[in-house]
Amino acid sequence: MSTTVSAIANIVRGLVWLVALSLLGAGGWIGYHVVNDRALVDRELKEKTEQLAAVAAEVDRLTTENQKLNLALRLLKIDHRVAEIVVLEQQREDARPKTRFQFVELTQDGSPIGEKKEFTVEGDTIYVDAWVIKYADDLVEKGDPLRSTSVCLFRRIFGEYQEPSGGFVLDAAGSRPSVYSQGAELSPLERDMWANFWEYANDPAKAKKAGVRAAHGEAPSMRLQAGKRYRIELRASAGLSIVPEEVPTKPAS
Q1: What is the pLDDT of residue 16?
Q2: Residue ranges of the alpha helices (H) in 131-249?
Q3: What is the DSSP letter of 158?
Q4: What is the pLDDT of residue 113?
Q5: How far apart are CA 223 and CA 101, in angstroms?
Q6: Contact between residue 158 and residue 165 where contact means Cβ atoms under 8 Å apart
């Protein structure tokens, strides 16, 4: 009897050990996979974090680039008020009206430069003849200290019934607009460009070397109305425009 009990006890102990070993094995297997899964999760988390950081860096780069592009676009579109025309009198008694007006160049803050000039023309339409130098867009975009905007030299002004060559002289050929003065002395480049304007206009290689996109004459026109004031604007990357003021005012003093 004791032998049988002992055998049963041995069998029970064996089963207990077997169950214990099975549990230990299962626990080890589970533990292994838990650790392995945790490592996998950590790796994936690290990869996602790095990807998010890269995306954030790219967003920052694109945002900065977009800001630069917007600034460049605004610089290209900046209009500079360079002169003013004020209609002083308009007579319409004859078939051809006569128009008396005042022309004055302006600083960027709107102050007159030099003497105000008065002219009388037959008709009511005038033309403003100017030499215009337009610099390369990248120089305008970067705000180059010398070449950040188009520049112009007013040559003459004439009425619709005048020959351009017989118009009223505004600035002499070879001179330089005082509104664009960068100091007491002209730089060698500026001096050469205004003294040899038509060489730059006709020599693409020479113009490109100086950062000039285009150099040519312009003569925008406007039909004047009595009592009105007109501003002449020069866009940083383009040419001249004559724009009527919304509210007529007295001539600049």
Answers
A1: 60
A2: 137-141, 188-195, 197-202, 204-209
A3: E
A4: 80
A5: 12
A6: no
CA trace torsion 160, 161, 162, 164 (10° rounding): 40
For residue 79, CA distances in Å to 10, 36, 103, 217 come to 104, 66, 19, 19
Exposed e or buried b per residue across 23-39, where buried means at least 16 C-beta atoms within 10 angstroms of its C-beta: eeeeeeeeeeeeeeeee
pLDDT at 65: 52
Q: How many CB atoms lie within 10 A of CB 22?
A: 10
For 7, the 3-state DSSP assignment is helix
Give pLDDT tens digits for 14-65.
Answer: 666 665 566 566 566 566 666 677 777 778 878 878 787 777 777 666 554 5
Question: How does pLDDT run across 160-184, given as a tens digit for each residue?
Answer: 999 998 899 987 665 666 555 444 4
If we measure between CA atoms, which residue out of 73, 192, 71 comes closest to residue 133?
192
Helix, strand, coil % over all residues of the chain, rounded to 5: 40, 30, 25
User: For residue range 55-76, what is the model confidence (pLDDT) as tens digits?
Assistant: 777 766 655 454 444 433 333 3
The overall pTM is greater than 0.85: no
Beta bridge partners of 103: 85, 117
Report yes or no: 153 and 131 within 8 Å, Cβ to Cβ. yes
| 46: its two tokens | 């690290």
